[in-house]
Amino acid sequence: MMYFPVFTQIEGKRCLIMGGGKVAARKVHTLLQYGADIVVIAKKVCDEIKEVLPEKSIFEDFIKNAESDFLEKEIQKAVLVVAATSSREENHRVAELCHAYHILVNVADSEAESSFIFPSVVRKGNISIGINSGTGSPAVSKQIRCQIEKAVPDYYADIAIFMGELRQYVKANFEEEAMRRYILKTAAAKAFSKERVLTENEIKEIIRQGQND
Questions:
Q1: Phi–psi pair at 103, nearest 5 degrees
Q2: Are residues 138 and 57 in the same domain?
Q3: For residue 203, how many other CB atoms are within 10 A of its CB?
Q4: What does the buried/exposed string (b/e) look like for 116-145 if buried means 16 or more CB atoms within 10 Å of the residue's CB?
Q5: Residues 133 and 89 in one domain
Q6: Cβ neighbours of residue 144 closer than 8 Å, sequence gap 6 or more
Q7: What is the pLDDT of residues 152-188, one digit of tens each?
Q8: For 119-158, what is each residue's pLDDT tens digit?
Q9: Can you tell me whether residue 189 is helix, strand or coil?
Q10: For 64, which of 35, 166, 170, 203 is 20 to 30 Å away at the CA?
């Protein structure tokens, strides 16, 4: 199955995890790296989750029949939901509710019911590279991730931050679009060729050359 790659902002946004076991803990760990506001609902919650989330974010001893209205309301508050309980029936019910309210859902035991998946991720500072093999095989994605991790050196993260700051400076100080493109394109090429961020004098030289051309 082919998936369209989308990067979305979840910092400070409500993400609901149904389930409190090892699979749920891995999803919690991943979402926390991106600043999500996580709520966990489960019959039993493992220590790995309790160690990283505040008590107010955990609803334990969840009883599906008595608390179905509560679950539905919590789902409607979320921007995305993970169904990772040990019950196929419960995961299916969560998926149906999410689909009814057009809320993104990842179902741990059913890719067919999932409207999004967790890709294998390479992170270098602010750089995130998501990988999906399209085969349903995590082993394939893991091997690809290992190859990319070797191919992307750590200094890429420094250059990415540097270029982001330079872009803001250029937008604030140069009105001509052609000049902006020249500075940023030239600076990026030089930074990657030198395998480091550029000095202030090097940036001034690029600007001078652009103004003289």
A1: -110, 135
A2: no
A3: 20
A4: bebbbebebeeeebbbbbeeeeeeebeebb
A5: no
A6: 120, 131, 133
A7: 999 999 999 999 999 999 999 999 999 999 999 999 9
A8: 999 999 999 999 988 877 888 999 999 999 999 999 999 9
A9: helix
A10: 35
